[in-house]
Fold this sequence. Notes:
This protein is mainly β.
Amino acid sequence: MGIEGLQIYDPETSKIAHFRYNQFSLLGLSSDRVSCITEDDKGKIWIGTNDGINIYDPFHPTITHYYHDPSNPRSLPSK
């Protein structure tokens, strides 16, 4: 089995931050199954999982979650 969650290396501090699923934490992922990662032009890390999109803000250490809402036609598509 591979590593669950996500590890992000900060070259400025030489530290590794580890993020996992945790519904009770501001730094918890919506799922440990990460499928894609990208960084935007503002330095935020976008993390695609099998249960929504997570946006990590390293400047104000929080993760914002976005999920499919079946009652909202403008939300994320479902699986």
